[in-house]
Specification:
Blueprint: H1 7-10, H2 17-21, H3 37-43, H4 50-58, H5 62-70, H6 77-86, H7 94-105, H8 108-136
Helix pairs in contact: 3-5
């Protein structure tokens, strides 16, 4: 079985083109397929120069960012990773992956408790951080 998919060739292959590019083994499926122009648009704030900074982070020109946002160009795997990092949504590390696995193993009730606990920790950490900063002045 052939497990390599080149989207440039598939795009011209007629009615099966859309099916082929959605197969999980298609190149870039795990990283780039979830990141597209719509994903980026949801995260853009409209701040002055934001698209220029995004273009720099992706390593492309601004006109390429416009093409990505309009859906006429897809992101490469490296560009998708850079976009995640630009928006503060970088890849998870092993510890985060372990926490997610534990969360998924828990019952729905315990998942709710875990979320409440993490929110409590986040609020407490923000207060603790403010106190540490004040003490350091």
């Amino acid at each position: 079985m052939h497990r390599h998919c080149d989207n440039r060739n598939v795009a011209s292959s007629g009615k099966f083109a859309k099916i082929a590019v959605t197969l999980p083994w298609a190149r870039g499926y795990n990283r780039a397929m979830a990141i597209d122009g719509a994903w980026i648009k949801e995260r853009l704030t409209g701040a002055h120069g934001e698209k220029a900074r995004l273009a720099e982070a992706l390593g492309v020109k601004q006109d390429v960012v416009s093409k990505i946002l309009s859906g006429t160009r897809r992101l490469s795997n490296a560009e998708a990773d850079a976009a995640r990092l630009f928006f503060g949504e970088g890849p998870i590390n092993e510890e985060e992956r372990s926490m997610l696995a534990l969360y998924r193993q828990a019952s729905k009730d315990r998942q709710g408790l875990a979320v409440q606990f993490l929110r409590l920790l986040a609020v407490d950490d923000e207060g603790g951080q403010a106190a540490r900063e004040k003490a350091g002045e």
